[in-house]
Amino acid sequence: MDLDLNALSVFALVAEERSFRAAADRLGVTRSAVSQTIQRLEGSLGIALVLRTTRSVSLTEAGDRLHAEIAPAVAEMRAALEKTAALQGRPRGCLRLAVSSIAEHFLAGPFLAGFAEANPEVDLDITVTDDAVDIVAEGYDAGVRLGEVIEQDMIAVPVAGEERQLAVCAPAYRRRFGVPRHPADLTSHTCIGWRPSPKAAPYRWEFAEGDKEFSVAVAPRFATNDMALMIKLAVAGAGITFGMEESFRASFARGELEPILEDFCPSFAGFYLYYPSRRNVAPKLRVLVDYVQQRR
């Protein structure tokens, strides 16, 4: 027997109202449509559920039993629909995000704390990952990544301005070993590199000379997937490292690190908040988009 949830919900209304007309009014359909639905349900069950006269409607014994069994479930479904509809009115619920570990501006405490304070009914569930996450398949509402790796069918909103990647070292390293004059010279220096996993090749350091872009495959003495460790090693004078300028700002301010090869490190489009193209964007995501746009 096929489960006809629509017919059961119509029957539940008839049982509550004891009236075909009242049930029809609540559903916004004709009395005839309600009657036909009840007849179809009775036919599929092979038993009468409703007793009809010209003046009243009552339930048979089978109708009473069925209503008693389905009434709690119908009430729960109505409540669930009402809660879902309420989400369209004001921002609330859990907002799941997949964010690149080097999206420093977005992951900064004040940025997210400010959003949470402005939207007290929105909870944030943030996964910091550098994997190529399919946010739709994985059930995320949105993600934050570099614009160059975002799929073309996504809506992308800039999180901040342009970014650039820099090679950096500690003043102590410069004094002991000097610094390269050209990125090609990095192969003769001790380097601290990044790779996403033990089986992946270390990330190639990307530069530009004039209009020509190129990369250098350094052979890192230290390789890790943790930018914080890369910075600590560089500050300790262990070698030259490479990453987003924003990641090094605090170390620059304290004099712990200094940029090198800046003439070969041009700016490029930075990080974007991205999400699937939908006609109806949930309010919890809409307020995040607005928040990001207001703080660029």
Mean pLDDT: 88
Instruction: Specify the helix fraction band.
Output: 25-40%
State the fourth-level CATH superfamily of the largest domain.
Periplasmic binding protein-like II
Q: Tell me the major beta sheet.
A: 5 strands, mixed
Number of domains: 3
**Largest sheet, spatial ordering of strands:** 4-3-5-14-6
Beta-strand residue fraction: 15-25%
- The end-to-end span amounts to 57 Å
Shape: rod-shaped
**Stretches with pLDDT under 50, minimum 5 residues:** none
For the record, the CATH architecture of the largest domain stands as 3-Layer(aba) Sandwich
Indicate the CATH class of the largest domain: Alpha Beta
The H/E string reads: HHHEEHEHHEEEEHEEEEHEHEEH
Tell me the structural class: alpha/beta
Q: Which fold name corresponds to the CATH topology of the largest domain?
A: D-Maltodextrin-Binding Protein, domain 2
Backbone CA Rg = 31 Å
Count, helices? 10
Beta strand count: 14
Can you tag this structure with a few keywords?
296 residues, alpha/beta, Arc Repressor Mutant, subunit A, D-Maltodextrin-Binding Protein, domain 2, 3 domains, five-stranded mixed beta sheet, 14 strands
